[in-house]
Design a protein that fits this description.
By secondary structure, this protein is of the alpha/beta class. It folds into 2 domains: 184 residues, Glycogen Phosphorylase B (Rossmann fold, 3-Layer(aba) Sandwich), CATH 3.40.50.2000; 165 residues, Glycogen Phosphorylase B (Rossmann fold, 3-Layer(aba) Sandwich), CATH 3.40.50. The chain contains 14 helices and 13 strands. It has a 7-stranded parallel β-sheet with strand order 3-2-1-4-5-6-7, sandwiched between helices. β8, α9 and β9 form a beta-alpha-beta unit. α1 packs across α14 and α9 packs parallel to α10. It starts with a strand and ends in a 14-residue tail after the last helix. 53% of the residues are buried.
Length: 386
C-alpha cells in the first residue's frame, strides 16, 4: 500500500486538491495522509481545516507554522518555520510520496522538506506564469519536484523546457474544474450564504444582479495594498450593486488590505456589501456561478469562472502572464478604468464555457498517476535533442 501525504496550506490549496483527495480516499492501494499547515489553520483565512473535516476527510496532522505579520519578512519566516515543522511531521509519518499544490510561499517549505528527506515529491499546477513572488516559488518547486501534474498544454511545455523529463510531466488538467463542473447547473442560487456562513454586514438581495469581489494584496506591491483595495471599494460604492466580498489571503500586505476594508466600513455606507472569510469550495463556486461579475485578482476568475462562463474583471498584475479565456477583461487599479471594465462586463453578460483548464475529470487522472507512477528521487537536468 502506497502512503500518500498531501500538504494543504491555504483555502485555495484545498479547492485545488479536494477532488483528488476524494478519489485517493476510496482506493484500496492508498493510505491517505492529510497535513494541514500555516494559514489553513487560521480563523481569519476561514480555518480551512474545519471545512476539510466537514467534507469527511481526516486531518492526520495540524502544523502551526504561520508567523503573523504584514510583510515579506513574515512570509520568509513562515517558510522557514514551515520547513522545520513539516520536516518533523514527514519524518514521523514516513510517506512514500508527498503532494504539494501550486505556488504559495508555504508550498516551497513542503518541497524542500520532502527533497532533503528523499521522499518523492508530486507538484500540482507547475509551469504556469503569473505576477508577484508566486512566479519564483512555482518554478523553484518544479525543480525540486519529481512528478509534475500540470493543468494546460502550455504549462506542460514550460515544465519540460525547464529541463524536466517528459515522462515525469503529466497533463492532468486542473482539479478545481471538477468542482465547477459539479455546480454548473446550480442556477439560480439555491442556498442562503447569510444563513449558512454569517459573515459581516447587512443581508443583501441576491435575487437579481450581484457582484463578487476577491482581491488579494500583490506581494511585490505591498506598499500599495491599501490604495488598491480603496479604489475597488470606491467603485463598488459608486455602482451600488449588491456585492459579496471575500477576505484576502494571508500574504504580505494583507493587513493593509484588511485595515482599509474596516476603515471604509466605518466611514462610508457599505450597506450593499457583505463580507465573508470562507465557504466550502462548492458553495463558493455556486455563488460565483450566479453572480453578474467576479472582480479582483484571484485565479478563480481565470480557471473556474472561465469554465462557468462568468464575466471577470481581473485587476492589476497578480495574474500577469497566466493563460485566460475570453471571459476575462483586464483592468488597472485606477477608479475610472475599473468602473468602465465592470460596466462593460455587466453589459456583456455570460460567456461560452472554456475548457482551457480542464473539462471536469482531473481528480481521477491525478489520483491514478499518484497511485501508480514509479517513484524516484533521482533527477538531473534533461533537454531533448529535438
Amino acid at each position: 500500500m502506497r502512503k500518500v501525504c498531501v500538504v494543504i496550506t491555504a483555502r485555495a490549496s484545498y479547492s485545488r486538491i479536494k477532488t483528488v483527495l476524494s478519489h485517493l480516499a476510496v482506493r484500496k492501494d492508498i493510505e491517505l495522509q492529510i497535513v494541514a499547515a500555516a494559514s489553513a489553520l487560521v480563523d481569519r483565512a476561514g480555518r480551512v481545516t474545519e471545512v476539510i473535516k466537514q467534507d469527511g476527510f481526516t486531518v492526520t496532522e495540524e502544523v502551526s507554522s504561520l508567523v503573523e505579520g504584514d510583510s515579506s519578512l513574515q512570509m520568509a519566516q513562515t517558510t522557514g518555520l514551515g520547513l522545520i515543522e513539516i520536516s518533523s511531521v514527514l519524518k514521523r509519518l514516513k510517506p512514500d510520496v508527498v503532494v504539494t499544490i501550486a505556488d504559495r510561499y508555504e508550498t516551497i517549505a513542503t518541497a524542500i522538506a520532502a527533497s532533503y528527506l528523499r521522499i518523492p515529491l508530486v507538484h500540482i499546477q507547475g509551469g504556469e506564469i503569473t505576477g508577484n513572488i508566486d512566479e519564483k516559488v512555482r518554478h523553484a518547486v518544479t525543480k525540486l519536484a519529481d512528478i509534475h501534474l500540470v493543468a494546460t498544454k502550455k504549462s506542460q511545455e514550460n515544465v519540460i523546457a525547464m529541463g524536466e523529463r517528459t515522462e515525469t510531466v503529466f497533463l492532468t488538467e486542473c482539479p478545481s474544474i471538477d468542482i465547477a463542473k459539479g455546480v454548473e447547473k446550480r442556477r439560480p442560487l439555491d442556498f442562503s450564504p447569510f444563513e449558512k456562513y454569517g459573515g459581516v454586514g447587512k443581508e443583501i438581495d441576491l435575487s437579481k444582479n450581484y457582484l463578487v469581489v476577491m482581491q488579494h494584496p500583490v506581494t511585490s506591491e505591498t506598499d500599495l495594498a491599501r490604495t488598491h483595495v480603496f479604489n475597488t471599494l470606491s467603485v463598488i460604492s459608486r455602482l451600488g450593486i449588491p456585492t459579496m466580498w471575500f477576505w484576502p489571503n494571508v500574504d504580505a500586505g494583507a493587513d493593509g488590505t484588511s485595515k482599509e476594508i474596516r476603515r471604509y466600513r466605518e466611514h462610508n455606507d457599505s450597506s450593499h456589501i457583505h463580507f465573508f472569510k470562507n465557504m466550502s469550495p462548492e458553495d463558493f463556486l455556486v455563488l460565483i456561478n450566479n453572480c453578474s461579475v467576479l472582480i479582483g485578482n484571484s485565479s478563480v476568475g481565470i480557471r473556474e469562472a472561465g469554465f462557468l462562463g462568468v464575466p471577470v474583471v481581473n485587476i492589476g498584475t497578480r495574474q500577469t502572464g497566466r493563460e485566460y479565456a475570453e471571459n476575462v477583461v483586464h483592468s488597472g487599479y485606477e477608479v475610472k478604468e475599473l468602473q468602465e471594465s465592470i460596466l462593460r462586463q455587466l453589459e456583456h453578460g455570460r460567456y461560452v464555457s472554456s475548457s482551457l483548464y480542464g473539462s471536469g475529470n482531473a481528480g481521477l487522472k491525478i489520483s491514478e498517476v499518484i497511485a501508480t507512477t514509479k517513484l524516484t528521487t533521482d533527477k538531473k537536468l534533461f533537454f531533448s535533442d529535438v
